[in-house]
Amino acid sequence: MKFSSKEVKQLKIFVLTAFGLPILMGILMGYSYFKGNDVSIFANAHMYYPAAGVMLALLVTGGKDQKLPKKFYFGFLAATVVMIAVCIASVIMPDLYWVMLGQYPIIIASIVCLILLLLEKKEVRSCYRLKITGRKNARSALYVLLFFALYLLRLTIGSLLGGQMDELIALFTNPLTYSIMFTLILNFFFSFTAFFGEEYGWRYFFQPLLQKRFGMRAGVLLLGIFWGLWHLPLNIFFYSPDTWLISVLVQIVTCISFSIFFGYGYLKTENIWVPVIMHYINNNMIAVVSGVEAMSDQVLKWSDVVFAVGLNLIFIVFIFSKAYNEKRQEVSSEISSGV
Question: Is residue 336 over pLDDT 90?
Answer without folding.
Answer: no
